[in-house]
C-alpha cells in the first residue's frame, strides 16, 4: 500500500507544475485532484512549486534589455565574415556598384600571401632549392668554373659531342635555356686570327675584327649557317654586360639588335683580350641563359632558369 | 518584398542570394533568439553577441539547412550551442556572473516612469531568477528557459535539445525541482 502510494505520489508530483498552469489533460487532472487531499507531502510540494512558478511568471513578464545591435550591424558583419554561396550570389546580384569587403579581404589575403606561406608553396620552394643544390653540385663536379685543377683540363662537352664549340642548327633557332656552352681552348694564334674569330659574330661569312672594340654586329643574318652547319654563340653573348673573369671589360658599348620576336637582346662584342686564348678562360664554362632581354630603360636583365651555372664574377652583383 | 511570406519561401530566396529575404527572417526571429540568449547568459551584451553570431552562422549554413525542423527551432539550436560555449568559456576564465546588485547600478532605460517600489520589486524578482538560473546546470537552465519562460512545446524543445519528448519531461521535472530548491534557499537567506 505504501509502495503504491509513493508510486502515485511520484506520478502526481511530476504533473503538479502543469496542474498549476492548468495544462494537464483530463485523465491526469482527475488523478491529481483525487490524490492531493490524501497526501500532505504532495500538497507541500504543490505549494512550493506554485511559489517558484509565480516568480518565473513575474520574471517572464519583464521586458528584456534593449538590443545593442540591429539588422544593419548584422548586414555589415555578413559582408565581412559571411562566406556562404548565398552571400557570394548576393554580391553578384546586389552589390555590383562597389566591391564587396569580403572579396576585398580575399583579394588582399591573396596579394599578401606569399607562396611560402602556404604549405604547398613551402614544399615547392624546398623542392626547387634542393634541385638547385643538387644541380649545382653536379655541375660543379663536372664543370668547375674556376680553379687550378680545371685550368689544364680539356673542357668537356655537355651538349655537343663534337670537337668544336657548341653548335646549333639554324632550324633550332636560339639555343634553349639551360644549355651549357663551353669555349674550346684555342691557341694564341687562333685567337688573334680574325678569320677564326668570325664565328663569334653569328653572322655568316662576315669577317669580324676581333680587336675592334666598338663593333656593332649585324644581326640580320644571325641565324644563318656559318658554313659549318650551325652558328656559334660566344660566351660573351651569354651574359650581357658581364665580362669574362680576369679579362678586361669590354670597352665598347654593347649593340642592341632587333629581334623579330619582339625581344631585344644584346650581343657583346668581344675584345681582343677576351678573344685571346687564356687557359683559365678556355676552361671556363658558361651557361647559356635564355635570351636576355633588354628593358626599355637600357638596364639589362637576365632570366636564369633553375640549375644554371654562373661564373663567379663580382659583376654578378648587377643581377 | 512581402513580410507575410512563409519561412520556406524566404529561405529559398536567401539561398539565391537575396539579402532582403534574410533580413525579413532576421526581423521575424531576432527577438526570440535574443531573449533566449539573455535568459541563458544573464547579460545583455553577451546575449547580443550570441544573437549576432547565431544569425551569421545561420546565414553561412543556409545551404545545409534541410528543413527537418522549423527555422525557429534551428536558430534556437544554434543559439543554444553558442550560449553553451560562452558559459564554458566563462567557467574556464573563472568569471563570476555579474552580481545583480552591480547590474542594477547600471543605467537601465526600461525603468523610466515606473514606481520605485514596483521597480525595486521587479529588480528583486529579476535578481532572484538570475541567481537561481545561474546556479543551475546548463541543460536544466535551457529547459527552464525554453519551457517556462519562452513557452515552447515539448516537441519543439525535444528538437532543440536533440532528445525525446519523454526525456524532456523527465529532465524538466528535475530542473523545476532544482529551481524550486534554490529559490527557497535564496528566499530563506534574505
Describe the protein.
The complex is a heterodimer of chains A (319) and B (190). With 319 residues, chain A is mostly helical. Chain A has helices at residues 2-20, 26-35, 40-61, 71-81, 85-94, 101-112, 119-142, 148-151, 188-192, 194-197, 235-238, 272-275, 279-282, and strands spanning 167-168, 180-182, 231-232, 255-257, 265-267, 285-287. By secondary structure, chain B is mainly α. Chain B is built from 9 helices and no strands. In chain B, helix 2 packs antiparallel against helix 3 (44-60) and helix 2 crosses helix 4. The longest helix of chain B is centred in the last third of the chain and has 25 residues, at 165-189. Classes of the chains: A mainly alpha (319), B mainly alpha (190). The interface between A and B is large, with 41 and 45 residues.
Beta fraction of chain B? under 5%
**DSSP strand content of chain A:** 5-15%
Largest sheet of chain B: none
| CA distance, first residue to last residue of chain A | 103 Å
Number of strands of chain B: 0
Topology as H/E string of chain B? HHHHHHHHH
Radius of gyration of chain A: 44 Å
Order of helices and strands of chain A: HHHHHHHHEEHHEHEEHHE
Structural class of chain A: mainly alpha
Radius of gyration of chain B: 18 Å
Biggest interchain interface, per-side counts: A-B, 41 and 45 residues
The outline of chain B comes out as globular
- Quote the distance from N terminus to C terminus of chain B: 54 Å
- Low-confidence stretches of chain A are 147-173, 177-185, 197-244, 246-270, 275-296, 298-304, 312-319
Q: Mean pLDDT across all residues of chain B, rounded?
A: 85
Outline of chain A: elongated
Largest sheet of chain A: 2 strands, antiparallel
Individual helix count of chain B: 9
**Which structural class do you get from the secondary structure elements of chain B?**
mainly alpha
